Amino acid sequence: MEPDKLHIPNSLFLNSVRLPIQVQGILFRKINGEIQYLLLKRNPEREGFWQPVTGGLEEGETRVEALEREVLEETGIESPIRIIKDVYYFELSTPLHEKEYVFGVEVLSTEDITIDNREHSEHRWCSLEEALKLLKWKENKEALERLNEILSRQK
After folding, report:
1. Does a structural domain hold residue 28?
2. Range(s) of the domain holding residue 61
3. Domain CATH for 83
4. Are 150 and 144 in contact (CB under 8 A)?
5. Would you say residue 66 has pLDDT above 90?
6. Which of 41, 46, 60, 64 is the most exposed place for a label (fewest CB within 10 A)?
């Protein structure tokens, strides 16, 4: 191992209790009046599908705090312009019946994205139509359509 590089095992990141609550942040930006949505492609060993920022609530966190942490961890974005709460909600059909709360997260059009390569292999800014084609899960598509409706009313 090179002396200037530190290897931190993934197990060290699992020091907090994960609750059966997920947050999803659909990041968006506006360029010349057009809205673009950010999708992240999971690594092949994590099934390789496209999704918004997603992660679990940790003990002691509010949903917004978990969202802000996940946005930072998965994209490197520290300061979103605004967060739109209560965009969408669904329950996963997992043994824990996890609940997933969806937020809209507006970021600067010039924001640089730095993905966490332990989770994702690439990112892409998409139109609504392109994002709907790339997303795998029905609930992700419904949440994106709902956010797009909210943003369309705000024009």
Report:
1. yes
2. 18-153
3. 3.90.79.10
4. no
5. yes
6. 60
Nearest-angstrom CA–CA distance, 137 and 121: 19
Among residues 129, 144, 138, the alpha carbon closest in space to that of 53 is found at 144
First to last CA, the chain: 53
Largest CA distance in the chain: 54
pTM comes to 0.85
Composition of the chain by helix, strand, coil, percent to 5:
30, 35, 35
The C-alpha atoms of residue 90 and residue 76 are separated, in whole angstroms, by 26
Determine, yes or no, domain membership for 9: no
| Number of domains present in the structure of the chain | 1
State both tokens at 63: 């949903």
